[in-house]
Amino acid sequence: MRRIVLIIEYRGTAYVGWQVQPNGVSVQEVICGAIERLTGESVSLHASGRTDSGVHALAQVAHFDTGSRIPADKFAFALNTYLPADIRIKGSMELPAGGENGFHSRFSVKKKHYRYTVLNTLHASALTADTALHIHYPLSLERLNEAARLFLGTHDFGAFKAVNSTAASTVRTVYISEWKREGDTLVYDVAGNGFLYNMVRIMVGTMLRIGMGYDGVDIIEKALADPRRGNAGDTAPAHGLTLRRVEYLEFDTDDVLRSNRL
Amino acid sequence: MRRIVLIIEYRGTAYVGWQVQPNGVSVQEVICGAIERLTGESVSLHASGRTDSGVHALAQVAHFDTGSRIPADKFAFALNTYLPADIRIKGSMELPAGGENGFHSRFSVKKKHYRYTVLNTLHASALTADTALHIHYPLSLERLNEAARLFLGTHDFGAFKAVNSTAASTVRTVYISEWKREGDTLVYDVAGNGFLYNMVRIMVGTMLRIGMGYDGVDIIEKALADPRRGNAGDTAPAHGLTLRRVEYLEFDTDDVLRSNRL
Predict the structure, then answer these.
(1) What is the rounded CA–CA span in Å between residue B125 and residue A30?
(2) CA-CA distance, A104 to B217, in Å (whole number)?
(3) Distance (Å) from the C-alpha of residue B188 to the closest C-alpha of chain A?
(4) What is the pLDDT of residue B165?
């Protein structure tokens, strides 16, 4: 068996999320269907992590094992012919399945990068309705960044995880945590060695109240010191969130996206 | 009666275009429905021009006459509560309906600005599938701009109009005609005193063949000198096109979008 790794872009709007759910169509099952049409095999497809309904991915990573002899880089082209336009494979490669150097999309992750996009205008936008959260109350970039800086480093993020999360440890390290203004849009870029369930959305929900002046940054200091869910803010809506990049020892999705250039 | 002018953003994907058609839902009828729910009146809504199915607008302009006493700037807020997320009113104002200074969304236009977006990568994008044309064959920015420059100035654009167009004159003046690279994306910005039916899409379709090296720029010289439809290239797909800005003596939609900032 060969282990094939896919780099996947998707618009999450029409899906119940990455993972198979009883209540609708998941990205995972659509890609598994395309793999079955191509290879005749019913495979298990393992992602770097699940994404919620409405969350997008510029570069999700997932692998499956196959007996197919299709050249590794041809899977991207072949699968795209069986996939809807809102799911695109941006690259495919073969990596070792087992042994010391065995690759696993989830367990081998070194860093993940997410972006949360906020449109801060009086009226909402039709064109970005599914990809940015609209907030018509003025946000202070300075206050957002005062808040964002507090997440940098290694902390117990227990207050910033969904109550139904079952993670063994809630300690994570955040390497990048920064808001930037791009025209009428405020983007939050965050990178870490891993994220708890709903962690980015709760971090953003907490910061947005600070950016609007409703809360002080001490909310975050308290939530990191006393990691109970009730000490953090609301979960920001899913549709503003995009998984942008996953880094492994073996490869970086940014390099795969670069190789997509002509 | 008061004349109310709306500045409208829409994602054209789900619609048959601006204008009411028998085969689906139009942007025009959806907005007319919202106006009727708000005012109780069945109005005629006149746009700066129609857009085809799949074409988007960042700033379409349309007006209607009403007996309603709602303050002019409140129409935007009120109508948005009755509209789907893929149609948003970005601003509203009152302008004179008749007399020497009478305003008309179509007849008073001074300049219109369109943008055509091309994603030039190996694999297509899921997130921009509805808003950019994907071309996996390398395009030369230099050749595209050699072609684009030939459209500048006043010409007979008879070769660059759909055969079923009924415009009295096919002479138009183009003020801006330029391709720019933005990462993996090539955008074509064009401004003119008016555009024939399908004119921008045929101009783009003609330039894309030149940018790929299939045709020389002489194709455009010939089509402008001998303005028959057969002398120009194919009509580029609708979904890459966005109406970005309309300029009038009375106002510029760019100023309205700026006033949308917080």
Answers:
(1) 17
(2) 51
(3) 18
(4) 79
Specify the fold of B110-243.
Alpha-Beta Plaits (3.30.70)
Task: Return the closest-CA partner of residue B54 out of A56, A131, A85.
Answer: A85
pLDDT-based confidence at B99, cuts 50/70/90? confident
CA dihedral B229, B230, B233, B239 (to 10 degrees): 50
Q: A78: how many CB neighbours lie within 10 A of its CB?
A: 18
* Residue A81 to residue A74: CA distance in whole angstroms: 11
Q: ipTM score here?
A: 0.94
CATH of domain A2-107: 3.30.70.580
Q: Which residues of A touch B (CB under 8 A)?
A: 9-11, 56, 58, 76-77, 80, 85-91, 120-127, 129-131, 136-139, 184, 242, 259-262
Is position A184 annotated as part of the catalytic site?
Answer: no
pLDDT, tens only, A124-142: 999 999 999 999 999 999 9
**Integer angstrom CA distances of residue A186 from A126, A208, B230:** 17, 11, 47
Q: Domain extents for chain B? A: 2-107, 110-243
